């Protein structure tokens, strides 16, 4: 197995930087996601690691070796694409064995390896089928089996589940993760689905316009977003404008005329303009103003989502807030006046 180290890598298309000085280290055996909106450079970076593209600057290492000049088939990688890219006129077994043949393995050995891979993706018994006889989910399992049959050191997946329906996607997320752990394979996973990245990854890099807005563990990014873009991208954070002021208790954030204490791990600079970023599920609408900190607000709409409600609120200062409240035992009507409370540790303070 091998780590992947991307150091200062850039790539431009027709004068525009698709990937701009990106550095990421993916430790041996870990699962790392590239997350970001469409066009932010995720696929370009994955193709640079795969060797389909050459960086204009920087280096890509797989294990100890710099691979900038190494063609894809010599990089010891397995790849899965959004579109399964199976050969329609070949059987499942031949599709999975294809890469092994390219590596010069004899028929017996490659069929044994291919069967082993099919067992891992729970497709044993379908060796003689053709791709068109399989569902989309099953075809993707075949593509996954093909990518791991040779037991590569590095696994690169580009939105592998985005063509599947939601239920199957969630099932496949945990299967992919289990398989990744079983094989101990170093993995880079491209997705634009924040829930998927949070659920699956040891590490995540959030892309914005070819650059990394922030990288870290799922918890780091969710609880301590570096800025409003990251906070919002990772799950519709509420952003309330404020400014850092000095009071008798030290530095705090003033927003809509109220003082908010920072949690212990925030470093504030006087007069800095900031946002308080609060997750919808961390707003508590159940109480009256009292010991808790928060903002008075009026309910604009209540949407029933099954297990919970989505409540849209407008603060007196004009900020729009979204809260999640349990659907049982919550009686909220449009126009009601409420107090939206939150704990200091649930409000990340992010750059404006
Ligand atoms: N072959 C190409 N020629 C010219 N420009 C390209 C090419 N491939 C990508 N780009 C541009 O590079 C930028 C990054 O694209 P990239 O496909 O890496 O983004 P992405 O984050 O993977 O997006 P998506 O989620 O939509 O696939 C975009 O502005 C895109 O238009």
TrEMBL record:
Pfam families: ABC_tran, TOBE_2
Keyword terms, alphabetized: ATP-binding, Nucleotide-binding, Transport
All copies of domain ABC transporter, residue ranges: 4-234
SMART domains per record: AAA (SM00382)
GO biological process: quaternary ammonium group transport
GO molecular function per UniProt: ATP binding; ATP hydrolysis activity; transmembrane transporter activity
InterPro entries per record: AAA+_ATPase, ABC_SmlMolc_Importer, ABC_transporter-like_ATP-bd, ABC_transporter-like_CS, Mo/tungstate-bd_C_term_dom, NA-bd_OB-fold, P-loop_NTPase, Transp-assoc_OB_typ2
Family under the similarity heading: Belongs to the ABC transporter superfamily.
Annotated protein name in UniProt: ABC transporter ATP-binding protein
Organism: Xanthobacter tagetidis
């Amino acid at each position: 197995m091998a780590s992947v180290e991307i150091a200062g890598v850039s790539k431009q298309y027709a004068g525009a930087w698709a990937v701009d000085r990106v550095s990421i280290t993916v430790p041996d055996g870990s699962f790392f996601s590239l997350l970001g909106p469409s066009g932010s450079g995720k696929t370009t970076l994955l193709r640079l690691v795969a060797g389909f593209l050459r960086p204009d600057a920087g280096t890509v290492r797989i294990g100890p070796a710099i691979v900038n000049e190494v063609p894809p088939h010599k990089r010891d990688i397995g790849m899965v694409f959004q579109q399964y890219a199976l050969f329609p006129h070949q059987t499942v077994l031949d599709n999975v064995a294809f890469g092994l043949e390219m590596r010069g393995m004899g028929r017996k050995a490659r069929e044994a390896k291919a069967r082993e891979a099919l067992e891992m993706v729970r497709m044993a018994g379908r060796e003689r089928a053709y791709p068109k006889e399989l569902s989309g989910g099953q075809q993707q399992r075949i593509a996954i089996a093909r990518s791991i049959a040779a037991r590569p050191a590095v696994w690169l997946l580009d939105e592998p589940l985005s063509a599947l329906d939601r239920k199957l996607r969630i099932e496949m997320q945990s299967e992919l993760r289990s398989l990744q752990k079983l094989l101990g394979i170093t993995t880079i996973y491209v997705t634009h689905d924040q829930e998927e990245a949070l659920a699956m990854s040891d590490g995540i890099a959030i892309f914005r316009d070819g650059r990394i807005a922030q990288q870290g563990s799922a918890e780091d990014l969710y609880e301590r977003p570096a800025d409003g873009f990251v906070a919002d991208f990772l799950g519709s954070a509420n952003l309330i404008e404020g400014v850092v002021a000095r009071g008798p208790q030290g530095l705090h954030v003033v927003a809509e005329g109220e003082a908010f204490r920072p949690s212990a791990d925030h470093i504030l600079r006087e007069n800095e303009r900031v946002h308080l970023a609060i997750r919808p599920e961390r707003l508590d609408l159940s109480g009256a103003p009292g010991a808790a900190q928060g903002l008075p607000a009026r309910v604009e709409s209540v949407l029933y989502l099954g297990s919970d409600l989505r409540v849209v609120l407008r603060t007196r200062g004009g900020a729009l807030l979204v809260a999640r409240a349990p659907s049982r035992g919550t009686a909220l009507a449009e126009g009601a006046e409420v107090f939206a409370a939150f704990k200091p540790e649930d409000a990340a303070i992010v750059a404006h």
